[in-house]
Each structure stands twice: as C-alpha cells, then as structure tokens.
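Protocol step 4 of 6: record predicted structures for both targets in the notebook before any analysis. Target 1:
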Amino acid sequence: MRIYAANVEFGARALRDVLELGRRGPLGMASKAKRNVEKSVAAKTQTLVDAPTLPMTEAAYLPGVAYDEMFTPEGEVRSHYDPLHARMSTLGAEELAGRQRTLERSFLLQGITFTVYGAENTTERIIPTDLFPRIIPADEWKRIEAGLTQRLQALNLFLADIYGDQQILMDGVVPRELVLGAPSYRREMQHIYVPHKAYANVCGSDLIRCQDGQFAVLEDNLRVPSGVSYMLANRDAAKRTFPGTYRAAGVRPVERYPDLLLATLKSMAADWRGDPQVVVLTPGVYNSAYYEHAYLARLMGVPLVEGRDLVVHENMVYMRTTTGIRRVDVIYRRVDDDFIDPLTFRRDSSLGAAGLFNAYRAGNVVICNAPGTGVADDKAVYAYVPDIIRYYLGEDAILPNIETFLCRESRQLGHVLDNLDKFVVKAVGASGGYGMLVGPHASQKERDDFAEAIKADPDNYIAQPTIQLSTAPCLVDGRIEPRHVDLRPFILSGEKTIVTPGALTRVALKRGSLVVNSSQGGGSKDTWVLAEENGHSNGHSNGNGSVRP
C-alpha cells in the first residue's frame, strides 16, 4: 500500500477536518488574560467546526526519510498504533473540537506554562500540546529502561570517582583537563560524602530514534532537569481525550512519579533521620519552570521554599514557618549550582541561602541533585560515556551515543569547519536549544559567524551529524502532518534506580525543524508505554506490518 492510500483511510472521518487551535497564545496570570485566551480558543474552535472539510491527500501526511512512529515505509499502520488509529477515525470534528477546547482550558486553569526569556510581547505561555499520543511497545521500552539504568549508574560512579580518588583520570580513560577544566566541575565537592553515591537523583536523558528504528542517547541532563510536570499533565489530557482507547491499550501508569520522587529524596537521608523533612527549593515565580516546582511540591505534599525562607544556624538548615523554624533534611533544589550559596559560589546570589553548602559539607542536610553533577552531562564528556560505562561496569553501552566531534581537538576541528553545512554544532555548557547551529538549516552568513565563534573558543563546542529525528502525527494547520520528535524519560536514583514507565515526547512543531525545545517553538505530547501481556510485548511492529511476538 502506498503512503497516500494509508492516509486517505487515516483521515476517513474526523481527520479530514481536524482542528488547529491556538496552543501558543500568551498566558497572563490575571483573570482578564485568562478570559482572552478562552475567547481565542473558542473562536478558533468555532471557525474550524464551520470550515469545509479538508481532504486527506498525499500532501497531508507524507513522511520523509526519517523513521515514522505510526506508519511503516510501505504505508501500513504499525500494529501497536492500530487501536488509536481506529478510534481516531470514528471521531467527528465537533467532538474533537470540544475535547481540544477542554484540554486548552484545563491547561489554562491549572497554569501549565513555560517562560520564554526575551520574548517581545509576553514571556509566559501555555504549553503547546498535541492530542495524539506517541506509543512505545513493551519490548522497546524494556531495552530503553535497561540502557538508562546502566547509564545513570555509570555516571554516578563517575561523579563519585572524579570528586574522590580520580582513578578514571589517572588511567587516562577521560582526559583530566577536560573534566577538571569544565565550568561545571566543582572543586568544593571533593571528598564530600554522598549517600548511596547517588549524585544525580533525578535525570532526564534525551533519546532519539534513528532512521534504522533504534534509539540512541542525544544528551544527558543531570543538573536540574525539567519537564516531568508536563509529562504528567499530558497524560491527564490524553486520558480525557481518548479514555476508552487508553483503558483498553494497557498503558503503564506514570501517576506514581511524585510518590517515587519523594521516596527517592527521603532515602537520601534515611540513614540518620527517621522521617526526613523534604522541601523543594525554587528560584521564585519568575523562573521559567516555576509551575513545575509548585506542581511537584503540591503532589509530594512538601513545602515549596525560596532561599529567603531558609536559615542556617550551626550548620543546620531550617525553614521559616508561621509557627516558627523547622529543620530541613533534604532539599530538592531547582536552583543552579552558582546560586545555591552566596558564601561558596556566586556572592551576588539572592536565590540560595548563606551557609547552605557548609551544612551540606557537614552532612546535616542533603542537596538533590548534588552540586557539581553538571560535569557528567557536559556535551564534551558525553563523547566518553560509552568508555565510562565500560570502565565502571565492564559492559558495552546498551543505548549508543550519537557520533560526536570534539572541536577542542585540532584534527576534528578542521573536519567540523569544513563541513558546517552537515553538522549540528552545540556549545558544551548550553541548554534549551540555545547556543547551537543546525548547519543544513542555517544561512551561509550564520555558518560563517558560527565558524568564527568556534575558532575563537574551540574547547566550548562539539559537533554531531544532522540526525533525522523520527516523526509522529500531529495536528498542524488543520491537517495531520509528520513532525520530528524526541523522547525524555525520567530516571530516579537514590537507594535504588527507577525508570518512570513513561516520558515527555517533545515535538518540533515548525515544519522541517529539528529543534524540539519549548523555548524554540516546540511542543509536547503524551507517551504511552505499553505493558506486557502474558510475558509478551503487545504489538510491536518490526517495520513491515507484522507483529513481533
């Protein structure tokens, strides 16, 4: 079957006239702004309901060379998508419009937002969310789970080593100057006891599916990873949108994540406190992820505090309450290293608490994630992670890396500069889609300017081949169109390591874009990880439409 025939069937009913709603409108916190957004949502919904149907032609959904999550290269629906595909074909436009309107209003009322710094009109926006979930069969997830567990265990051992005896550096597995010269390496962390050697308690690794259908790790996030609240919000939205399909599909739940996070945090102080007091430390309401900080604190049932709420006395940390001060045992910090303690790090910081790091060094409080974890997710250190896994665990990496060129090495630098039109170049310490060049999509002037920046500071850049991220169906401009996606699962590490059976699927909503970050115009969708049935994975297609047992 050719792809256009598959798409005519795919859009037989509702998908011929699906709607595009204003998912990217500005969000003000005042009631007037909320009413404006609600009116905009209602207006766009009514416009689409009244609009003529759009025929689903070959142009409406035509995957390119990238692996497509729903369709095989022959145009067949992958078997684990069959139930969702069938359900989508039965829904009418008005019903879809109502569900989309409910979703938008739900996100609005819950304050599910993110902040774009430097935006001209407004910085706070509703998270753009696609209705159609991404589905991952059980056998694929089993490999992802094993690979992420292996990876985080090795990275925690690496952190314990480089802040201890530094054996891996003496053995020359990772260049000493690369680690000790990294901006995120914290000499203050040397020889500090960390319970369970769990430096990174919350990790959000970014995975991509390559053109051969296999998953690989694009980068690790061990500092202050965000996005888990959007994973939970997307799940709630998907359950409302496709309730029957969700129940019948055997989707593994993610709702226990707050409980698992709290248990992980408490395990970090369980050796010396029977019932540790946990708090979430936030930079405040103006932070881009403040919604997530407040959301997780509420779901865990723990206080949300700012630096000014904490006081350190005799190397003990306390929080101010309406009934007096109360001791704090574990701090889940959502504040970058530099701002934790003005006495140890940046002296102009007002986001942390003076003396906090001394209390941590004395063993009277636990900071999660530990300061200095960022050196393990440095984009240059990333190139050595397979060697790190082999060094500490004696195993080959289950999930491979993407080929990476280090501009700090002159030979590789020359290769990168000669092929900028083929590479994605990233600053080693940047995040959020900033400080990067996507060579094939950049103009010649942009490439020339970036080349000068690389030459001026080659140690600060790495390059990777442009990878065609896999695509998944999304509602775009009234059509079902493929958009590139990645996958951010969340791993917890304390007394034990737990991979949450779900993930945040990030979507590059701009046509042809490979940048999925919300700050760069990306959105998200729910991720359904299917449970095993009777010891067999349910419905994984091997690429030709048949079902793997």
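Target 2:
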Amino acid sequence: MKRPRLSFWLAGLWALLLGACRSAKEPPLAEASAFPEPVARILVRRCAGCHNGSAFLSSEAEHDHGGPSPAEVSWIGTRVNLTRWDSLLYGYRGEVGMVVPGSPDWSHLLWQVNRFPHLGPTAAPIMPPPVPDSSNLLTAEDIEVLRTWIAQGAPNKEGQVPWADRLTTPHRKAFVCAAGSDLIAVLDLDTYHIMRYIPVGVSPGAIESPHYIQISPDKRYLYVTLIGGAAIEKYRTDTYEKVGRLAVAPDPAHIELSPDGRYAVITHFTTTSPVKLTLIDAENLRILDQLNDPTGQVILRPHGLWVTPDFRYAYVTANTGNYITRVELSPDRQRFIDFTQIPLAPGLLPQPDTRWGPYQIIGEPTGQYYFVSCDAANEVRVFRQADDSLIAVIPTATAPKLMTYANNLLFVLCLKASAPALQGDKLGAIAVIDVQNLRLLTHIYNTGHLPRGIGIDPIRQQLWVSFENLAGSDPPHHYVEGLAGSPGKVYVLALPTFTLQAVREIALAGYGLALIP
C-alpha cells in the first residue's frame, strides 16, 4: 500500500521539477525583452526569430525590411532587432521610423505586419512571411495590440516611453513640417531617429498644412504657420505640449520673432485677402496690428520676411511684383507705421511684374548684406543693409526658394532644378554661394525631390533638407496602401563635402524645418 503512495509522490515531484525547469527555461517574454508581455508575445515569439539584429542580410533583404540607406551601411552596421525593446527603438537606424511613439499610422513596423486596411496602412511584403500558408500572419487582434501599444507611446514593461530623457530639453532636435499630414516630425540630430510626431491643427478631416517653423530665441517654444488653417500655433520644444493657437488672416506663410521673443511679424501669402502682414504679441498670442492692403498697393502676395535686429523694420518680398517692401514698426512694437518699396533693380517703378518672383529674404549676421531669392528670374539678388542698394546678382538653378547661412556660405534651395543625367525625374538642387566674394560656387544635385526646408546643425556641421516629394519621384522605401500620397523625405549632408549621411522618410509633404542644436 505504501509503494503506490511513493510512486504518486515521485510522480508529483517530477511534475514539479519539470514545471520548474520550464519556468527556468521559459521566463515571461517581457522579462528578457523588456516589451510589455502582450507585445512580447507577438514581436518576440512571432518575429524575432528572423529579426534579431543579424548583420548577414542581402541588399535586397535590407531594402525589404527597412535597412539603412547605402550611405549608412558602411558606418552604422545596425539591423532590425525585435528581440528587445531598446534594440528596436534605439538600435535601428534605417530610412523609415520602425516605431514612432504615439503614431501607429506612421510606424513602419505596423505597416509591414498589417493586412487589414481598416486598421491602417499596409506595405509589401507582408510579415511574417505566409509560409507555409496565411495562418502564419498576425490576426486583427494582434494588430490592435500593437496599435494600442504604439499609440500609448510604445512603453517598455516598466512603463518608460522611448526618449523620455529628451522631454526635459529642447536641444539636439530637428522639427520638420509634414504639410500633407498636419504633423511636425521631431528627429534626433545625432542618431536621426524620428522620436515623435506633433499633431497640429484643429479641423478634423481638413488639412491645415504646417508651412514654416520659427524657434523662440530662448529655444523653449516653436511657432508654426498653418497656411491652410488661417492660424499659427505655439508648442513647447521639450515636451511638445501645445501652448496655444491664434487665428489670423488667411494664408499665413512666414513668421519672424523679435530678438527677445516677445513679438512676431507674419506674412500672408495671398492676393485675395486684404491682410498682408500681422504683428502679434508672441508671448500671449494676441494680434497687435494688421497691415490691410486690399489691392496690393503696398505688398503684392507677400511671402519671405526678414526683420532687423532692433525689430524696427520688416523686409517683405512681394512675390508677384518687381520689388520688396520695407515696413517700419513703432518704437513700442505695437503697430506698423510706414513703408518703403525697394525695386529689385535700379530705375524700376515698383509694380506688378511676374518676371521676378521675390520669394525669401535673409540677412547675414555681420550686418553687411541681405539676400533675396527670385524664383521666377532664377537668381539671388544681394543688397547692402546700410542703404538698401543692389550690389550683386547671382544666377542659380531653377526656382530658388528658401535659404540659410553658415560659415560665409549661403545655401539656396532651387525647387525645380532639373538634371536628368544626374537625378532622373527628381527636381531640385542646392545652390552654394560664397558670401565674401558674392559668387556661385556650385550646385548640389541628386538628393531628394522638391526641396522645401533647410537648416544647419553647427555642432556636427551638417546640412538638413526636407523634401516635398510630390508624386513620389524620390521613391518611398515601400509602396504603401492607404496613404494619401508619397512620404516626404529628409536628407542630411556633411559639410563641406556634401556627402550623404542619412535619409529619413517622414509623413506627407516635407516642408519648413527648424533645428535646435
């Protein structure tokens, strides 16, 4: 009678030992991976067997799985690694944002595993591979788990969100308008990761089109013009929290702040609205004055803007005229008080004339010159700050638009420059001008398609350029079903060699950008 009991006891002990062994060999997936357990069950169990950071991938596999661009392969050496939370979020440095915290619809990982159009965009090839059949694919419930996790910030098992430490500082960030998606992409200046998207606008179903970004002098805030929303919005640059919104006249395009950050002038890129300029209290987001010009006698279709360091004069381009306008502000910065029209060439009578197309204006910091890009005449005109006299005309490639200045060089985005032998169907070039000698040095071709925003990182000596990429002439990483257009692009070039450092896809229609070193 005792043997059966002993046998039963041994069997029970054996079962316990087996269970203990299994527990030792198979801890909760979250423990080793740092993903939340429901996410780990999908990514680690279903995906990490292949996507484990292996460096042995063919070039085709790199492309299909979001690998680095050719320019990055030689110096990054990272691959998609789904074995751990930190390796997925911090390790991968490819062209696309695999997981963008808070933005499931712009997280490439979700595109790649999703086969349900009602749950978001889908991309080919579908993952995991349907081998031996489609039973291997993720279910709708799996996709919902991943969507919810990303929407909540893609936290680890402890609840920490990626780049949490960056929410305490504004520095080392690039802010790039995605005009077709009502988003601002936030990228890390050092790793080029897309850390976040800031949603802008208040009109569901209507694109308000973020156009231009200006950073406050203390780096604490960004101001963005919503050219399709007749408003500007203000955000914190550390936490990305929305501070407020100010409704202004239609088509706000460019914004420039006073040196103390208390005031700003806004241009309105319009021929139909009577308001051509707005002066605001930038701290409290209220309108102080407007320049009403219903017939365009003062400024025809104003776009570009430069304010003098004392904030007494605003220089404004008249895009459908043959002149720029200098607008005087009152000493108390409360109103516009006078204006002077400056012809683009001596002897011209300021009037409507579409042959010139003055678009942007920028002053160089020594106080010697200011530069006007003319997108119809394909040139940059140089004026002396002291007396507004024209001193040079520098030809450029087609449609010069935005400009930036650094180290005695002026970089000019030429929107429609064509060079089929160098860049196929892509349009765009970067003109490089020697400011000391006032001459064109070169054009940089074969980057992205339709350049729209430009900025300099002085710490790493890199040039950042955003591209609209309408019609997808700069092919997106994958063809994606469910998007309203082709993703925008951001290119990073080393200075002074202009070698490509990184390419990043962002949401639709890359536009204005601003960097905080």
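Step 5 preliminary note on target 2. The CA atoms of residues 109 and 485 lie 19 Å apart. The first helix runs from residue 2 to 25.
Proceed to step 6 after PI sign-off.
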